[in-house]
Amino acid sequence: MSTAIELLKGSITRVSQTFVSIIVAFFMMPFLIHELGDYWYGIWTVVGSLAAAYHLFDMGMASAVTRYVSQSFGLKDNLQANVTINTALLIYSVIALVIVFVSVGASYGARAFIDDPDSKDIIQILVLIIGVSVALEFPFNALAGVASAKLKFHHVALTRIAMTLMGAALTWWFISEGYGIVALAIITFCTARISNLLYYFICRAAFPALKISHRLASRANSRELFHYSAWSFLIAIAYQMRNNVDNFVVAGFLSAASVTPYAIGLRLVDYVAEFLSQATNMFVPIFTGYHAREDSTELHNKLLFITRLNLVLALIAGGGLIIFGQAFINRWMGPNYTEAYWVMVILLVGRMIGFANHPLNSAMYAANKHSIVAKIDVIEVALNLAISLVLVQYLGLIGVALGTMIPLLLLRLFILPYFACRSIGLRTVNYYRCMARPILAVGLPLIVYSAWMTNRVKPDTYSDIILYGIAMSVLTAICALKHGFSKEEKRELRKIIPSRRLKVLI
């Protein structure tokens, strides 16, 4: 089966996984908020942010393992692939032990920040369970790169779909029976373990020559991994802080209950961003191949093509969320979360720009020049925290959202393209020029449709939102396919679109 078809198959399954996750969360989020209350749901969100911070202990190792395992597969060197995997397994086992000890300390430290004596024990248990769960995931990161290099995206996605449905069913039953937030943590722990084991079986099937032995671990290989992962570690730190620092700022300066409306807006943006990322974020191995062959022309062409594709998807998805977001939140959560809409809009602007130029990140990783991304990310997070701490005191939740969006907008739209394009020999003006066609092809229909909706239609039911949302998506997608791509890019799209009827649209 061709690489293009495998990527399309993986893309469809990954998007389906995200769709299932969104549907599940659509029902589970209001259910949990109403069953647990704003306070405990806010606590659960903060604990989740703490758990996400534990992933900083990865130190960028997963990206290094992925790169070197993929490289070994490309050279058909199974021995070197096993050396990399076992070296990483030893490193991750040590990291897992460290996280366990840190989790124990954090579980006791959390008590100092809680005034309610009845909540202290519960929160301590939550922090401990989630921390240990994250620790147990780390050894499986040694297999990073096996599934992706073997193009097993669809197998991994199907596994995650099954775990999402299982976790949702168990959560619904136990919370409905009154078992509370600790049961939610235990369910999360158990489903994560099953997911880890299934992932191992997928990698074992994809790489039958896989061998697990401490004798295959190599000190020289560990130095190579750490050398590559250094900049990836900074990127991981920036990513985690950018995605989780807001919750701590809101909880610290406002209240735990205020985290909930912020989390609603953030969650919707996360869903859209994840949906889009699952569809197109698979091109590092392809860019790596062009870079290894020193085929800069093909690298530039594919980079501009994927950038256009990402921008089209970002405009359609982001524009739709802005147009229908207020009606959706009112129908989903009720009229008491109006501020969540404006949080969503502000965060969405920055995230969609970040998604549109994400192919630049992939090109930097492929060329081993991801230090540029790391430096920009660190600056972005520093500005994010500084601006948020100032604006939260004057604008509340809106100020925190602006603190996240402003640096992302400036750095991702201007600074990253300048330095990244220079590093791979692409003229910056050509990069910006490639964006003009999609913006005009999709932006103008979006403006017209939004104006029509504002003056003529007020959707207040799910069926109305879905109906008008589909109409908007079809209209803008047709405009994008007709006018958003060059003739060469349209030929590339025809190759991977299976339906003859859909090919006519291009």
From TrEMBL:
Keywords, comma-separated and alphabetical: Cell membrane, Membrane, Transmembrane, Transmembrane helix
Record-annotated membrane-spanning stretches: 12-33, 39-57, 89-110, 122-144, 156-175, 181-202, 248-269, 309-329, 341-360, 397-419, 431-453, 465-485
KW Cell membrane (keyword) present: yes
Subcellular location(s) of the protein: Cell membrane
Gene Ontology CC: plasma membrane
Membrane topology, record value: Multi-pass membrane protein
Protein name: Polysaccharide biosynthesis protein
Taxonomic placement: Bacteria, Pseudomonadati, Pseudomonadota, Gammaproteobacteria, Pseudomonadales
